[in-house]
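As a warm-up, study this chain.
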Amino acid sequence: MDKTLVILAAGMGSRFGGLKQIEPVGPSGEVIADYSVYDALVTGFTKVVFVIKKENLAYFQEHITKKYESKIKVEFAFQSLDEYQDFIPEGRIKMLGTAHALYCAKDKVNEPFVMINADDFYGRDAYFKASEFLENSTDAYEYLSVNFPYINSTSKNGKVNRGVVKVQNDEIIDIEECSIEEVNKEILATSKKTGEVMKIAPTAPVSMNFLVFKPTIFSLLEKDLTKFIQNDINETNELILTDVIKHCLKNNQIKFKATLTSGKWLGMTYRDDLIDIKKTLQELIEAGIYPVRLWEE
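Now compare it with the structure written out below.
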């Protein structure tokens, strides 16, 4: 079956201090998204769609996607505020959030797909689990979150934002976007919406935005996005994907299956994370998981 990888790559990394999506991490100058596309190809994906800012198109085409455009279909979708100028406050430049970023890909995706962040490395096991789910799931409104044990998704350089999920019978019944930090050997997750603090176990499942969808998600996104833009928008707030998922779960509009990957997440929340990313990728190369040069001519 046709399967697409949608990569959200329009955001700037404020804590990282630059455009994380184009930071070289591999021995031959690869960026994290190069490894994501490689893993998708190995596991049977046929197309990749990058959601970017239009002003970055030329750079992505020349320095990133050119390497593999002969091996997998590559398309671009653009995240912009242009069509919402009649609704957003004057002077707002901040994008509308991850729900809007994914919605921007609606005209490029007509098949089941995986959505990921451009600056997160998830490991090949996540793609195998996504492929297996898509090959067997027949419900158009049944999706999947490939989660990580918290301990496999941390940064030693500071707090991290994670979706803390509650799972029952292999289905997500709730998800809460949290800021997580370790204090006095306890792992504390603080809800970004309510401020409630909860203790979680090292093995607690967290969402890292490795989400498996069917095209039905776009109509659900459109409803919540329209409401957000017309009623709730101010100078800085966002509609994040977690908000839409929580709303859909509450209203029994979707089923959201959950599974855990055995892989280790790698990401660039902070610039010092680069050291660990490069070290781990080198270990994977030495183990034969990836070639030294991903995209040979």
